[in-house]
Input
Amino acid sequence: MCAALSFAVASEQNDTHDVAARIVGAALVDSRAHDKLAWLTDRIGNRLAGSEALTRAIAWSAEQFERDGLERVWTDEVMVPHWVRGRERARVVAPVEHRLPILALGGSVGTPEGGITAEVVVVDGFESLEVLGEAARGRIVLFNRKMERGFTSENGYGSLSKFRSAGPSAAAKQGAVAMLIRSLGTADYRLPHTGALRYEDGVEKIPSAAVTAEDAMLIARLAEAGETVRIELELGSKTLPDARSANVLAELRGRERPDEVVVIGAHLDSWDVGTGAHDDGAGCAIVMETMRLLKKHDLIPRRTIRAVLFTNEENGLRGGRDYAERYADEMPRHVAAIESDLGGGAPIGFGVTAGEGGVEIVREIAKHLSVIGADQVFPRGGGADISRMKEYGVPQIAQLPDPALYFDYHHTEADTLDKIDRHDLDRNVAAMALMAYMLAEWDEPLPRIEVVDDD
Amino acid sequence: MCAALSFAVASEQNDTHDVAARIVGAALVDSRAHDKLAWLTDRIGNRLAGSEALTRAIAWSAEQFERDGLERVWTDEVMVPHWVRGRERARVVAPVEHRLPILALGGSVGTPEGGITAEVVVVDGFESLEVLGEAARGRIVLFNRKMERGFTSENGYGSLSKFRSAGPSAAAKQGAVAMLIRSLGTADYRLPHTGALRYEDGVEKIPSAAVTAEDAMLIARLAEAGETVRIELELGSKTLPDARSANVLAELRGRERPDEVVVIGAHLDSWDVGTGAHDDGAGCAIVMETMRLLKKHDLIPRRTIRAVLFTNEENGLRGGRDYAERYADEMPRHVAAIESDLGGGAPIGFGVTAGEGGVEIVREIAKHLSVIGADQVFPRGGGADISRMKEYGVPQIAQLPDPALYFDYHHTEADTLDKIDRHDLDRNVAAMALMAYMLAEWDEPLPRIEVVDDD
Output
């Protein structure tokens, strides 16, 4: 290697190190992410699609982007489902009485006036439901599967969430009058965890709710002892006409290739319990603060960084769908989409779905984050809101906080501000800001996902 | 030492070891404690004084003692307070809306029809309440003190429970219209913890409830930011006329000195939330199973062992009072009272309040329990139900499970069977059975507490 080239490499490395130091330093010293999260959770509260709170969150976040000096701030109107919970209660009425704390699943129909009282049958999955045959008719089906910590577990959230989404229609097909699911969660504090269901077309819609792990076990113990367990269930939930909502967007225009875009996203909506701090207030604060800090510290990369706060991730994904459709023409010039939607734990790294060599580039960039422990890179990743861009080949990246406690709080009344450490949140800002900047600065765009044409 | 004496000592030691081995072996191999606890919690459920469930628990436990072959089984009727919770709800209504999961404190009066809506003032103790002066008038007072783990902490349960018991009257004296307390608990899953209050005579009774730690922090954050925080509170609680209840008793008559008694006790009542598994179903199962195993394995000591399942520990202590008064004549021949009322964690040892030399004797006995980790002896201990025997000089012993998680679940909906490990429970039975047997067998009675005559 000649001296001049060696100097150039060293200089370039120094430049990169210098920029990385500025980004990480700004995030750790100058972050207001926690203040933003506190406002969103304490002052606006939970914000389900269709709620007045979500409308306020949209106005507030757009206003924040403006205040933080971003050049282009706008909202894209999106119509969203408007489901309301109403009054709900349940109890075991035989062989003994037990109150059951419950949460209706998002999208569930209500029970008829006066509720439903029926015998419970306990199953551990679709197969054992099918084996029941006629024995499910007129009954309440309880899916009782214990969720385990860890993403790779076959009893993790990814594997078991199908019972929540598809369980209601599966139970209805066998004549069940209602469906209950053992909460998908990992703590043991008698917390019900809500979440969305998906009724199958042409199948009767039956009322569906989550019971706590404790109560699922109780019911299973009684049933195993040969008792006829009867439950009284009353859900006041219903779906109103679609409501007006919006994605909130803001840009840092690229200094050389402004038409090429790195999207950084999170979702502004939450369930209607707790205050949506981990899910996904944290992600919104990370995205918003990434934008403010890059702008403030004049860290403007070659390409454009576009922040998108999606609406309606939880029960419809209308925000994510709208974005991919509305900007379909721009998709060939979207070089990456990064989503933060796993809470506010300490950052551990990234998950990447990209074309060949993409993981290596992300790994190269993430090395700068070893100092804050955020340099792990997994060869698979993305996020619900950005998933619709996949079919256009846009590389998908998950910004990953440590998910160890995430599913303790996910979709519960306990998902509140106090669960999130200020410094962990700042470290996530550092990880997001660095990755977004570097991908927007990188010589070549990240290798795209190969799109297989089904036609 | 002559050979004969040496042999005698060794032989006696062997006898003691032999008995200890039989007791511990029986408890670890042959225990049905978990089955008993499961019945009490799953099939009877929570059992507040005055409830039908407590009446069933009394009948069931007496029947169990009979079935387990104890010679003398009886109940002593006790009149108990009959407080009922009714419907309850609360929410922050300004500056923003937040639902507040709450539990009325046991004994609280209800709110007037339609509830109370008032501004909150946040205090951290009696002093800061007093400093408020007239600023508390017409307001809702919130005691916001964070409870810490550990018995010795000055912010532990022992130190902070005075705010729950005496806080309502302290607030009322300054004209407050209601009192809220940050739940006395150590977990962060948005669980309210109930517990008893004690209205002062001649002071207005104001409605009082526990909010979650999360919500106490939220309210404090809003108030610190200068916001006027208003809360709407509705409690349907009320106190009905006293109800009939009973202590349940059973004896293993001593083979040499049947008039001398070692009491082993726990309380059969619980709060009206969860199923009272840790508090104090575990204690009841430990006491009941201790009796069955000693009887079954023909381990009959010199003195009588009397099991007492007390009623109404939680909100009146009428069972404990009745016992001490009813058997006042026997108190001089009560050589010890052991209570198990700290849940079903792994046993760690005992706490002892006795006359000089008493701790050493208990320590000597507890050595046999080192194999199960239950040989720690602390120089202070007892239990609420047995505390009334103290004034008669009866040595007080707490059988101690590891309390690390106890206050995560204490007085909440989450105090359920699944929190208790079967083998931990069996080890507690071993600890209780060995201590009770040895104290009933010991040559000399345990040194009594010195009673200071106040007259």
Observations:
- Chain B has eleven helices and 16 strands.
